[in-house]
Design goal:
alpha+beta, about 25% helix, 5-stranded antiparallel β-sheet, SH3 type barrels, 8-stranded mixed β-sheet, 13 strands, globular
Length: about 260
């Protein structure tokens, strides 16, 4: 069976909106944002085999090499009861991947706020962007890049954090379209509890470095050693600093574990 047929069969078996696949794009998020503004429905999906201008947080580059990774962006239109839980949409994608990988008995973790780790190394990243009309949120675009096969792993000198891929963690190749189907299945299920305590519990259970000391840097600040406690209902990172103070961060970056 060809990749094209298998991909189509998997996607058409799921309750998605429309979907489109591109051999090569600049950014799937850009295409999805344009599509959202043109009226794309909830759960519309943009996929690409190769991505030349993908981006992560802070406008960092995310390159997707052909035949080796997943580059996907979903148009999601938050329901009224989800409006107060927008940060959870980043976790929706990350937890979808984490639960999908568990089908191969792989234990992945979420490095707050948007990276998925395998064996302590980055295997995926999530970027959520919004389409606003004035003060009204029209849609979210939930983008995710997943390193699936060995060719997707960037050179060490090009990364800020050690990187890996699913195949390296598993010790054998993985069918990326099968993985995609599982990710989407898990995301569809998780969205049903996105506003509930069940979702927050799953998010906390997947949090990397929970109960450990790490180097953390808030925007515009210097790196400091903090002990991670967990996540608040709004998705903020709760930690204890060296002065024994409990702090909730809504932005920032975990740099590395403290040894």
């Amino acid at each position: 069976m060809s990749e094209e047929i298998k991909r189509s069969q998997i996607l058409e078996s799921l309750p998605l909106g429309s979907w489109q696949f591109h051999a090569k794009v600049g950014s799937t998020n850009d295409l999805a944002l344009d599509w959202a503004r043109a009226g794309a429905g909830d759960w519309s999906l943009v996929l690409a085999d190769e991505q030349s201008s993908g981006r992560g947080r802070g406008k960092r580059q995310w390159v997707t090499r052909p035949g080796s990774a997943l580059a996907m962006s979903l148009v999601l239109r938050p329901h009224p009861d989800e409006a107060d839980h927008i940060p959870r949409f980043t976790a929706l994608a990350a937890l979808g991947l984490i639960r999908a990988l568990a089908r191969w008995d792989l234990r992945a973790e979420l490095k707050w706020p948007n990276d998925v780790l395998l064996g302590g190394k980055k295997a995926a990243g999530v970027l959520v962007e919004a389409d606003w009309q004035g003060k009204a949120l029209q849609a979210l675009v939930v983008g995710m890049g997943v390193n699936v096969l060995a060719g997707s792993v960037p050179a060490a000198d090009l990364t800020r954090y050690p990187a890996t891929c699913v195949a390296n963690a598993l010790g054998c190749p993985v069918d990326r379209w099968e993985l995609l189907g599982y990710i989407l299945e898990e995301m569809l299920a998780l969205r049903g509890v996105l506003t509930e305590q069940t979702f927050l519990d799953a998010w906390n259970n997947a949090l990397a470095f929970r109960g450990e000391w790490v180097w953390f840097r808030a925007p515009g600040g210097e790196a400091q050693q903090v002990s991670l406690t967990g996540l608040g209902p709004g998705g903020g990172l709760i930690y204890e600093n060296k002065r024994g103070e409990m702090v909730t961060a809504v932005a920032g970056e975990i740099l590395m574990a403290y040894n």
